[in-house]
Design goal:
This protein is α+β, with helices and mostly antiparallel strands. Helix content is 51%, strand content 21%. A three-stranded antiparallel β-sheet has the order 1-4-5. Strands 2-3 form a two-stranded antiparallel sheet.
Length: 92
């Protein structure tokens, strides 16, 4: 009976640690999203996409080499926004 109790206690501790980790990640994501929303709010409504706005909202842009698929030239672009990172997987 003691072995079962110790096993169950170990499983519960592991589960508790996983929940704490997920809560920490959620809290960080929530904070990042709020920071991004606060930053966007300063510029709304956006009437024109200018250099200042791009430099403020975007952390980096990665442009991949072109590839040919079904006879079409495709260039993938990744956009990483401040505080929230990459939102779309790929923009073609």
């Amino acid at each position: 009976m003691s072995a079962n109790f110790e096993r169950e206690e170990s499983e519960l501790k592991e589960c508790c640690n996983e929940i704490k980790t997920k809560l920490s990640q959620y809290t960080q994501q929530n904070k990042s999203a709020k920071n991004f929303a606060d930053l966007i709010e300063q510029y709304t409504p956006i009437k024109e996409l200018d250099e200042i706005l791009l430099n403020t909202l975007i952390e980096k842009i990665i442009v991949h080499e072109k590839v040919y698929e079904s006879g079409e030239k495709i260039i993938s672009i990744e956009i990483y926004y401040r505080f929230v990172g990459k939102i779309d997987k790929n923009i073609v």
